[in-house]
Amino acid sequence: MNQRTAVRGRPSGTDGSDFSYRMVVDSRYTKVAKAKSRLAKLIFAQVVTQLMMAANVFVSLSKNESPYRVLVSSLAIGFVTIVAGELGRKKSRSNFLKFYVFGSSMSILLSVACLGISNLQLEAFQNFTSLETLKVAAVLLGFVVQLFAIGISVSLIKNMAPPKRAS
After folding, report:
1. What 8-state DSSP symbol labels residue 93?
2. Cα–chain center distance at 163
3. Which residue, 11, 57, 99, 158, has fewest beta-carbon neighbours within 10 Å?
4. What is the pTM of this model?
5. CB–CB of 16/6 below 8 Å?
6. Which ranges constitute the DSSP H helices of 63-163?
7. Measuring CA to CA, which residue among 27, 56, 54, 43 is closest to residue 124?
């Protein structure tokens, strides 16, 4: 075997002359890596919206008001499914990701239902410091984030599956 000559101080074997022997990563794996990165950001955004809603519940408790049970159950479901989504993302478990998509969708739908149940007044939106404004902002932000999370999760699940073989 001939030794390659170093080009401009590079060590042997790094001059690019072995390009024909290098393997190419399948595009499916690069899509999975990008989707996992995007999903991590969306899960973080979901944690922020869940914390905003939890802050709303705690403030209402401190004022001796009883929080909506629907909102509290939405928070519980949301935090459990966020943990499942993070585990599914890190360990590439499609079942956890499917549970995450279903559970987090149910959580945000319960939050939207809670907004429908509550007596929202137009005066609450004129005062941007009210708790109602915080709750509405958290639910709307969570809804938008959930739409993106569903799309990213579905594409991630699709790309993680082994390719179908033609018979």
Report:
1. -
2. 25
3. 11
4. 0.77
5. no
6. 69-91, 94-117, 122-126, 131-160
7. 56
- Burial class of residue 24, CB neighbours in 10 A (0-12, 13-18, 19+): exposed
What are the distances in angstroms from CA 25 to CA 19, 22, 28, 38, 155? Answer: 14, 10, 8, 20, 18
In the chain, what's the furthest Cα-to-Cα distance?
A: 82
Q: Dihedral sign, CA of 141, 85, 52, 115?
A: positive
Residue 155 CB partners (closer than 8 Å, separation 6+): 31, 35
Tokens of 47: 């944690």
Whole-number Å distance between alpha carbons of 142 and 137:
8
Task: Show the tokens assigned to 161.
Answer: 């599956």
Q: What is the pLDDT along the chain (167 residues), one digit of tens a residue?
A: 455 554 566 566 566 666 666 677 778 888 899 999 999 999 999 999 999 889 888 888 888 887 778 888 999 999 999 999 999 999 989 999 999 999 999 999 998 888 877 766 555 556 666 677 778 888 889 999 999 999 999 999 998 877 777 66
Q: What is the spatial distance between Cα 35 and Cα 23, in angstroms, rounded to a whole number?
A: 22
Residue 66, SS3?
A: coil
Please choose, from the candidates 98, 100, 95, the residue with its C-alpha nearest in 3D space to the C-alpha of residue 42.
100
